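This part of the workshop introduces the protein records we will be handling. The question running through the whole workshop is how a given chain folds. To make this concrete, we reproduce a full record directly below:
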Amino acid sequence: MEKAILGLDIGGTSIKGGVLVKGHLEDIRSIPTPALESKEHILETIASFIDSYSHYDFVGIGIGIPGLVDSREGIVLGLANIPSFQHVELKKFLTERFSKPVFVNNDANCFAIGVHKYGVGKPYKNLVGITLGTGVGGGIVINGHLYSGTFSAAGEWCSAPYLEHNYEYYCSGKFFHNVYQSKPKALAKQALAGDPEAVRAFDEFGHHLGELLKMIMYGLAPEAIVLGGSIRKTYPLFKKSLFKSLESFAYPTVLENLKILISELDETAIHGAVALVDVEQDMVEV
């Protein structure tokens, strides 16, 4: 059996998994999340899913979740859209069940270390990963290491006040839904066909995202910002207004050296979960 790393992405609607073997992600699967069931039922569902990968000799399990995590102890403090999954000792449960190292972190943090380890962020020691989807997530890599902060809450710029709401309202799918009563994919199709309102929607979105990136740059001045999530695919539609917004950044030299990159990885959440284990393995080997 090949040595492998198992990565899980646990969300409100599905639990996805995949294994990294010889640097390649394979055997990607998903099952529905029993979101309204008890904590015990959900834990057993996760364990059964891991059991389905038992033909791999995996050296560790990495898990990304959309919520706050005590990453040192592997305790899930709260998981979005799963009411019963509060203060769950996930690491302890899985370590005792499988006798393998288990690492748990916020999914946006996983994205950041994943693109640094396997994706377009490889050349950069200092980067920020931003996921643009239903919401906005952020992860920080400093000097080649993931910075999670207390309870994995570093990079939660989404909740910072901005205009009449917060950054997530204006820099995620919520913007298109709340302001234009549509979804990004549908509006993108209309914008590509030249629909003026759809074009305007992405222009406005790019401006708001630029304001978010400027705030990040003032605090961290990263070498690169990597955009992920489903909305990244519409980047050509908001690229111009994004860079127009960035022009007012106070330090031109910092801006000139910043790389804004689009993640090319598929299954970024699983790549990120795998990276939690892979990074630890590298540290042990050193």
User: Anything to note?
Assistant: The CA atoms of residues 67 and 79 lie 5 Å apart. Confidence is low (pLDDT under 50) at residues 281-286. The chain is about 40% helix and 25% strand.
